[in-house]
Design brief:
21 helices, mainly alpha, single chain, 469 residues, transmembrane, membrane
C-alpha cells in the first residue's frame, strides 16, 4: 500500500496544477507560488505568524540554494561587458570569419562559435560578444541576417543552454528539484542534447537552403544601420587597448578557461566546485582586464562592471526564486523549515505522491516521457526557460517514483523541453537579443524555428522512451 496522503499533499498537488495552468496561459507565477507557500505553512504549523515567517524563510532557502548560480552568471556577464568594451571579443572571434566562404559554412561557423562561447559566457552575453563580428561576415557570403539569427538561437539558446555543461545553472535547478546530484542530470542529458541539437539544426539548415534556392528567403544584406554600427565598433582607435595588447589578452582569456576545463576533467569537478573554479577565474580576469584597459579609473570600473553583472543575474533569476522556493518544499526544505509534521513513513511530499501514483496509475516509460516533454514545454511558455524548470524537476521526481527508475533521464528531458521552448528559440520575446543584433523581427525568427524545434522535441522524446525502457 502507498502512504496515506494528507491535506499537505493535496494542497501541494493543487498548487502544481494551478501553476501549470498559469504557465499555459502565460501568466506570472510569483503570486501563486507565494500563496502556495502560505497555505502549506498554515497546514504545517497552524500558526499565522509562523506561516508568514515561512514565506520569507522559504524564499531565503531558495536564494541560498541558488546563490552560487546567480553569482557565477553575474560574474561571467560582468566579464563579458569588459571583453565587449575593450574589443577583446572581436579578436577572439575574428579568426572564425575566415571560415565563412559560403552560406552553408557561415551557418555552421556562426552556430558552432555561438555554442562554444555560450557554454562559457551564457547565450545572451554571447550574442553581443560574437554577433557584431560574425554578422557582417556571414551577410557578405550570402547568408541572410534571419538565418544568422536562427543559427545563433538554435546553437546558443538551444544546444548550449539546454545542456549548460560548463556553468551548470540549468542542471542545478532541475537536479535540486528532482533531489539528485547535478552530475546525474548532466550525464543523462548528453545523448538527448546531442539528438535534439542535431535534428533541430540540420532541419533548420535544410529549410534555409531550400528557401534560398526557391527564392522564398533572399540573401539580402542587413539593414545599413546594422552593418554600419557593427563595422564602426571595429574601427582602429575606438578601443582603449591597442591591437597587440588585445591579442595578448584574448589569448590569456582563452588559455585560462581552457586550463579550467582541463582541471575540471582531471579532478572530476562538477556542481559547486566547478562553479567556484570558473567564477574565481572570471573575477580575476575581470580585475585584470579592467585595470589594464581603464588604468586610472580601474578601481571604480570594476565595481561598475560587477553592478551591471548583478543586475543581469537578478533580472534573470528574480522570477525563479519564488517558484523554486515552493518546489523546494516538496523535498528536503519542508522538514528544515517546518519540522517533522508529515507522517512518520513519509519520504517527502513529492516522493509520497510518486509512491501513491505507482499504486494507482499505470505510468510507463512512454507516458512518462510524454508527460515530462509536455511539462517542460508548458513551463517554457513564459519566455524565461528557467522560471519553470524547478517544476520540471519536481514532476520528474514524481513520475520516476511511479515508474520505478529513470529520474535523471526524465529530468534531463524536461529541462531540454523547457529551455528550447522558453530559453530563446520559440517564444518571441525571448528572441529579442539575437533578433536585435541581426536587425530582424523576433516573430519571424520564432516562425523559422518552429518546425525544427518541434521536430527535434518529437525525436528526442521518442529517444528518451527507448533510454527508459
Amino acid at each position: 500500500m502507498g502512504i496515506e496522503l494528507t491535506a499537505l499533499h493535496w494542497a501541494y498537488a493543487a498548487v502544481i496544477v494551478m501553476l501549470i495552468g498559469c504557465m499555459l496561459f502565460k501568466r506570472d507565477t510569483t503570486l501563486l507560488c507565494t500563496a502556495g507557500i502560505l497555505v502549506i505553512a498554515l497546514l504545517a504549523t497552524h500558526s499565522v505568524s509562523a506561516s508568514v515567517s515561512g514565506i520569507f524563510n522559504s524564499f531565503l532557502y531558495a536564494l541560498k540554494e541558488l546563490l552560487s548560480t546567480i553569482l557565477i552568471i553575474s560574474v561571467i556577464v560582468a566579464m563579458s561587458r569588459v571583453l565587449s568594451r575593450t574589443g577583446i571579443n572581436e579578436v577572439m572571434v575574428s579568426p572564425f570569419t575566415r571560415l565563412m566562404r559560403t552560406p552553408a559554412m557561415a551557418y555552421w561557423t556562426v552556430g558552432l562559435v555561438m555554442m562554444i562561447i555560450s557554454w562559457f559566457f551564457w547565450p545572451s552575453p554571447a550574442v553581443a560578444l560574437i554577433g557584431v563580428v560574425l554578422l557582417p561576415a556571414a551577410v557578405r557570403v550570402g547568408l541572410p541576417p534571419l538565418a544568422v539569427a536562427v543559427a545563433m538561437n538554435l546553437f546558443g539558446h538551444g544546444i548550449a543552454l539546454s545542456g549548460d555543461y560548463v556553468i551548470q545553472a540549468a542542471p542545478k535547478l532541475t537536479a535540486d528539484a528532482a533531489g539528485i546530484p547535478v552530475g546525474d542530470v548532466i550525464s543523462a542529458s548528453v545523448p538527448l542534447v546531442v539528438i535534439m541539437g542535431a535534428v533541430t539544426t540540420v532541419t533548420a539548415f535544410w529549410m534555409i537552403r531550400r528557401d534560398l534556392s526557391s527564392g522564398r528567403l533572399s540573401p539580402e544584406s542587413a539593414s545599413p544601420a546594422t552593418i554600419s554600427e557593427t563595422e564602426k565598433t571595429g574601427e582602429a582607435g575606438s578601443y582603449p587597448l591597442s591591437l597587440p595588447v588585445r591579442r595578448v589578452m584574448a589569448a590569456v582569456v582563452a588559455l585560462l578557461f581552457l586550463i579550467d576545463l582541463i582541471v575540471m576533467f582531471v579532478l572530476k569537478l562538477q556542481g559547486g566546485e566547478a562553479t567556484a573554479l570558473l567564477g574565481g577565474t572570471a573575477l580575476l580576469l575581470l580585475i585584470l582586464l579592467t585595470m589594464q584597459s581603464h588604468r586610472g579609473q580601474g578601481l571604480e570600473k570594476i565595481t561598475e562592471y560587477l553592478v551591471d553583472g548583478f543586475q543581469f543575474g537578478l533580472k534573470v533569476f528574480g522570477p525563479v526564486i519564488p517558484i523554486a522556493a515552493f518546489f523546494y518544499l516538496g523535498d528536503s526544505a519542508f522538514t528544515e523549515l517546518f519540522g517533522k509534521v508529515l507522517p512518520a513513513a513519509s519520504a517527502g511530499i513529492v516522493n509520497d505522491w510518486g509512491a501513491a501514483l505507482a499504486h494507482s496509475v499505470p505510468i510507463n516509460a512512454p507516458l512518462g516521457s510524454l508527460t515530462l516533454a509536455a511539462a517542460g514545454a508548458i513551463t517554457g511558455l513564459d519566455g524565461s526557460g528557467f522560471s519553470g524548470i524547478s517544476l520540471v524537476g519536481s514532476v520528474a521526481h514524481l513520475v520516476s517514483a511511479a515508474i520505478g527508475s529513470g529520474i535523471a533521464t526524465l529530468t534531463a528531458l524536461g529541462q531540454i523541453a523547457a529551455i528550447w521552448v522558453g530559453g530563446g528559440t520559440l517564444v518571441p520575446w525571448a528572441l529579442i537579443p539575437a533578433a536585435a543584433i541581426c536587425g530582424v523581427s523576433p516573430f519571424e525568427v520564432a516562425r523559422r524555428n518552429l518546425i525544427p524545434v518541434l521536430t527535434g522535441l518529437a525525436v528526442t522524446t521518442i529517444a528518451a522512451m527507448f533510454l527508459l525502457s
